[in-house]
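Notes on consecutive records. When two proteins share a document, each keeps its own sequence and its own token line. Never mix them. Below: protein one.
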Amino acid sequence: MVLRVGGRDAAQQPWCCAPLAELQCITTELQRNTLVLLWRVVGGCQGCYGESSGGRCCIGASPEAIGAAMKHHRATGVVLEHRPDHRVPRSAAMELRRVPIGKTFETRDPRTGDVIASIAEGDKEDVDLAVKAAREAFDHGKWPRMPGSERGRIMMKYADLVEQHAEELTLLESLDAGKPRTVTRVVDIGTSATSLRYFAGAADKIHGETLKMSTQFQGHTLREPMGVAGLIIPWNFPAIMFFCKVAPALAAGCTMVVKPAEQTPLSALYFAHFAKQAGVPDGVINVITGFGPTAGAAIASHMDVDMVSFTGSTAVGRLIMEASARSNLKPVSLELGGKSPLIIFEDADVDLAVDLSISANFFNKGEACLAASRVYLQEGIYDRFVKKLADRMESWVVGDPFDPRVNQGPQVNKEQYEKVLSYIDHGKREGANVLTGGKPCGQRGYYIEPTVFTEVKGIPEQDDMIIAKEEIFGPVMCLMKFRTVEEVIAKANDTRYGLAAGVVTKDIDVANRMTRSIRAGVVWVNCYFAMDADCPFGGRKMSGFGKDASMHALDKFLAVKAVVTPVYDSPWL
């Protein structure tokens, strides 16, 4: 594989396509009652500002000015600079009010490990304030009472703003999460706008049913917003998952308290600003930055939160469910972990199979709950597949996510980096063979070589390896053999998870049998990661329950109410 850590084959400094001018994002603050991102140009650019060093400050600039500056400089290696006098507020409620700064926590650049921002740490008191604002907006505000068509119009404007500022959002997301910039622009930010538009179109199509009752009564159902929704966002897809939850909640007429992951909090604050610009009323969206055991737990256990939608690990999902049950028995939707199988039959196109296995495991650095880290190969294709896979991995590029040549950036933080390396060490100690990768790379940052293990003893063998049964959440692929359809069905299902699966075959009968036999929320045939706003996404077993995306996601933010009235002397009974 090609390692371009730091973006250059030899150097370790961040890669930048415009070396004379690099934009630094200083921080986020509430200024003049508006949430703005503050940027400055550094490194000097005589062609732009006539200054050989230092650059010109853009403090207080509008998002439009920021975007223009970014595009003008074609900046790539964007870095947030911590300044104690410019700290991110712990709560970005839609009132966008100034709040006192108390405890803070640091967020770090995964390319280097350096601190990029100081973020205010929200606690139970802040959650109480945010829930109070959301409750007031729901009980007395206009958003739940607004015609669906008007909510949809505002959401369409919201989507327009996301697209208009796609460049800034791409830079933030890539910086915060270590995602390759080229992919982030199309997948993460593009999908975010698409989700908003999809649910904007659904906002005026929420309707009930007429009931044919057997006695002298007539009935119908109403579908009403659930109330205040607690939305807890994961760190691996901050933008996508923000709108997977916020968009259907908005369409339903709910108000909400949103907690982004502490590892990747930046884009959620910017999204709150755009909601305000689009016309979402005060108190509808309330963003709290903080940690799961404090802010997240306070949301899950709050007596005035009416439902919770959570995406994250199975262990934390269990805690969310327990806290919700112990408080006001609020309903929950949980999208949790996975250990998905990719099953490749011997009649498959081997080039397609290799392509799918790479994307199913190394997309987003393997930080995807849907990742198919269990790759089952029928014996007749195993050797050809392994050779082609090894050849393909020779051209895989690991490095700075702002380098357009890079396929894989750094893991999100040091904790995740060390966790993935520990799983790789487990695999080696348990006897698996390393085909490619298996090591960290680079002098700085959280870069790991994409790792492929062969000779893996997998489920349901008695001596199955840890790497074959536990979710790794990193760039690690396990290859295992099988002989028959019956054998691989048993292996695919012998896991506590049930999130996704993939099948690669030219035989439609085999494909049909597999899709009906695998217990998972989604099964892809001759493709992987084929997602759409209209495709329900969610798991079974310990991968959780409830759906993100599609009209099924809208349903979880709606309560069904039956209305019954008597009918006198009707000729139609």
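Protein two starts on the next line and is unrelated to protein one.
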Amino acid sequence: MVNEASSSQVDPSCQSAMNTDQFPCSISLSVPLPTARLASTALQALQVDPELSPLVQRQLRISPDDDVILQVDYRATTNRMLRVAVNSFMDSLKLVLDVMEHLDTDVLAASEAAALSVAA
């Protein structure tokens, strides 16, 4: 049985080098959102589902430089695994964005304001 506490004590620089060797295929995505609150909400919604394959690693975070940017980093053992994982993530992201578009008050207010400015 693996002790989770011991795995968190691995030096991050060593772990990063190890991940690059074991997971050579990678992609980084930056997803801009209208507000920091929506970026945080998207992050929380997408973090719930872990990667199902041990052949793929994913890291989600809010950009330290811009709090409206959701950063997504994927690493995988093969390009095929990377493609499958990113396609699945994009489907999940689309669902989260659709829900925000239809149900979030900030997005609805912005849509109404945009519609009024176009009509004027």
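For the record: The chain has five helices and three strands.
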